[in-house]
Amino acid sequence: MIIMIAAVAENNALGKNNELVWHLPNDFKRFKSLTSGHHIIMGRKTFESFPKPLPNRTHIIITRQKEYQAEGCIIVDSIEKALEICPKNEDSYIIGGGEIYNLGMPYADKIDITRVHQEFEADAYFPEIDPKEWQLILSEFNEKDEKHLYDYTFQTLIRK
């Protein structure tokens, strides 16, 4: 199954200057728990926003840079090539950024969203989720607290 996973603001903002504009520790824990042991597909800029490759995951990086290299990672030049590499009988995750989510949307079977209940100024956005194509099957609201500055909801959608 191809799954898109993201933390997304009310206005579909993802981040600015290649960084998240919020800090939600429970979202990081959920991301780690869902993606560990799987292939993760991302754009070059998303990969470069990490201090180092994420442990226990196979990184597939999409870039137009012909000579791009990243130790221990698979480099491809299209979403189609990235998806071909993923095991067909396992979950694989598209983890961003905005351009890669747009390219991946037609291929996704499922979307795991952390909806941050706030609007942010951003330069990367998640694509619109068409309610005619997607069905919400899980919604778990979380109130802000001392570690989370914003209310947020974990949501899972599947393609109809």
Automatic annotation (TrEMBL):
The protein's Enzyme Commission number: 1.5.1.3
Family annotation (Pfam families): DHFR_1
GO terms under biological process: dihydrofolate metabolic process; folic acid metabolic process; one-carbon metabolic process; tetrahydrofolate biosynthetic process
Keyword Lyase: no
Reactions it catalyzes: (6S)-5,6,7,8-tetrahydrofolate + NADP(+) = 7,8-dihydrofolate + NADPH + H(+)
Keyword presence, Transcription regulation: no
A cellular component term, taken from the record's GO annotations: cytosol
Role summary: Key enzyme in folate metabolism. Catalyzes an essential reaction for de novo glycine and purine synthesis, and for DNA precursor synthesis.
Classification via PANTHER family: DIHYDROFOLATE REDUCTASE (PTHR48069:SF3)
Family: Belongs to the dihydrofolate reductase family.
The protein, known as: Dihydrofolate reductase
Organism whose genome encodes this protein: Flavobacterium petrolei
Taxonomic lineage: Bacteria, Pseudomonadati, Bacteroidota, Flavobacteriia, Flavobacteriales
